[in-house]
Amino acid sequence: MTAFINILLSFAMVFGGIVSQADFLIHPEKYNAKTLEISDLPEPVNEPATDDFIQLSEVNMHYLVYGNAGPALILVHGNGGSASSLREAAQYLANDYTVYVPESRCHGQSSDPGEISYSLMAKDLYEFIGALRLEKPVVMGHSDGAIDAICLAAEYPDAPGAIIACGANSHPKTFKPYFPVGVAVRNTIKNDKLNDLMLTLPDFTPEYLARIACPAYIVSGQFDIMWVSDTLYIAENIPGSDFAVLRGEDHSSYMSRNGAKAYVLAREWLDAVGA
Description:
275 residues; Rossmann fold; eight-stranded mixed beta sheet; 9 helices; 8 strands; globular
């Protein structure tokens, strides 16, 4: 009986997701539909100013720093990524911010302590901020990095000055069905704890999201891997947050595949909220 109920709930969630995607086309204003316009941008910075490691309590974390033009902004890559995943975004943002690009535990050149979760990666970010004595940095994350940013703000509310969460899901069940199926197939061929992470976490309840006190911008693409209703759910449960669904964008098109769009997205919102 429990299995049957779970199947019904899954079908209901998928149906609701499909309805929300159609609703986006009919009522784009409900989702703060936005088009990113890139023109008259500064030239991207070529190379990182710093390429280093810092020892945290559990992780020897590799990180890059681009520019030294302004306040601290931390860019956090997604599942299976590395600092190079957000290289172009960092190069553009370095015109206005000092951009730190750490590599999460079990990723890139950072060490693998054996265990991974979003809460653990948020703890690593908290320690990273403290170790480098960063004062209320903006934390901008993509995909799993967006989930890390949300966890950081919920579990260590005094650490970030603001968060920009791009492509976060609140639960594995809010993915469009094709995505977890593909991850599960890959995991069957070769089990990977990074795949396990996406298939089992996060689980953002309204109570958990309500713990976030800093300015927050919750963003997804129109053709993202989660339903647009999930973006709305996350934003509605973070007090005072802003959100947008980006017209014509998918999960990575405006972040890891186009640094200019990431720059415009961040600058417009940060200027608006004064962060």
